[in-house]
């Protein structure tokens, strides 16, 4: 019952994310080299290297597109079932958020 409740809360949080505007955190520095994003989080002293798909998503996180719009753009570029793409992007964004690499906003950034 406790685990079931956690799953419901997590699922709702991910579904709410669809209408939010993900943006690369200000404290994060990144460069894309040969289709791989190198992301530095100075506060944590960490460097992350994203694969081609992760790098493409990273490049779309401008705070002007909703998560749903990011998913649509990725669906247009990659051949995979739409449900898988949505699920993977939502989990990826949740992971980035937990690592303080991305912020989520209810309104688009200008």
Key words describing this protein structure:
two-stranded antiparallel ribbon, 3-stranded antiparallel beta sheet, single chain, 110 residues, alpha+beta, 22% strand, 5 strands
What can be said about this structure in brief?
The protein is α+β, with helices and mostly antiparallel strands and 110 residues long.
The ordered H/E elements are HEEEEHHHE
Indicate the structural class.
Answer: alpha+beta
The biggest sheet amounts to: 3 strands, antiparallel
Percent of residues in helices comes to 40-55%
| Residue fraction in strands | 15-25%
Write down the overall mean pLDDT.
89
What is the spatial order of strands in the main beta sheet?
2-3-4
H/I helix tally: 4
Give me the count of strands: 5
Overall shape: it is: globular
End-to-end separation: 43 Å
Q: Indicate the low-confidence ranges by residue numbers.
A: none
Give Rg in angstroms: 14 Å
What does this structure look like?
The termini are far apart. 48% of the residues lie in helices and 22% in strands. The protein is an alpha+beta fold and 110 residues long. It has 4 helices and 5 strands, in the order αββββαααβ. The longest helix has 17 residues, at 82-98. Helix 3 crosses helix 4. A 3-stranded antiparallel sheet has the order 2-3-4. Strands 1-5 form a two-stranded antiparallel sheet.
């Amino acid at each position: 019952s406790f685990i079931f409740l956690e799953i419901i809360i997590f699922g709702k949080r991910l579904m709410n994310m669809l209408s939010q505007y993900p943006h690369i955190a200000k404290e994060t520095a990144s460069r894309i080299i040969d289709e791989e994003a190198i992301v530095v989080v100075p506060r944590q002293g960490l460097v992350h290297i994203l694969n081609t798909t992760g790098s493409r998503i990273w490049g779309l996180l401008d705070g002007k597109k909703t998560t749903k719009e990011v998913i649509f753009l990725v669906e247009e570029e990659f051949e995979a079932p739409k449900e898988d793409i949505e699920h993977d992007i939502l989990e990826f964004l949740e992971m980035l958020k937990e690592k303080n690499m991305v912020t989520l906003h209810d309104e688009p950034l200008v």
